[in-house]
Give the backbone structure.
Amino acid sequence: MTLDPIFSKSIERVTHYLNDQWAVFKKDYQRPLNVLLLPHFADPRSFHLSLLNSTLYLKQMFDQQLTRLYAPGISARFQLPKV
C-alpha cells in the first residue's frame, strides 16, 4: 500500500482551505478604493504651481546668508573660502 495518494489529497485539501481563508481575509481587511469619488479629469488650474508665500521666505533666507557672509562681527558659520 502506498501513502502517496493520501498525502496528495491531504495537501490539496489544505491548499484549498488556505486559499479560501486568504480570500476571506483579503475581502474583509482590504481598504475599499473610492474610485467613484475621484474626478475623471484634473482641473486645469491644478497643473500650475503657485508659491504664494515663498517670496518673503526666500528673501529672508538670502538676506540671512548674505549677512552671515559679509558681516564679520556676526557668528559666521557660512563663509566663502579665502583665495
About this structure: The chain has a mean pLDDT of 77. The helical segments are 4-29, 54-70.
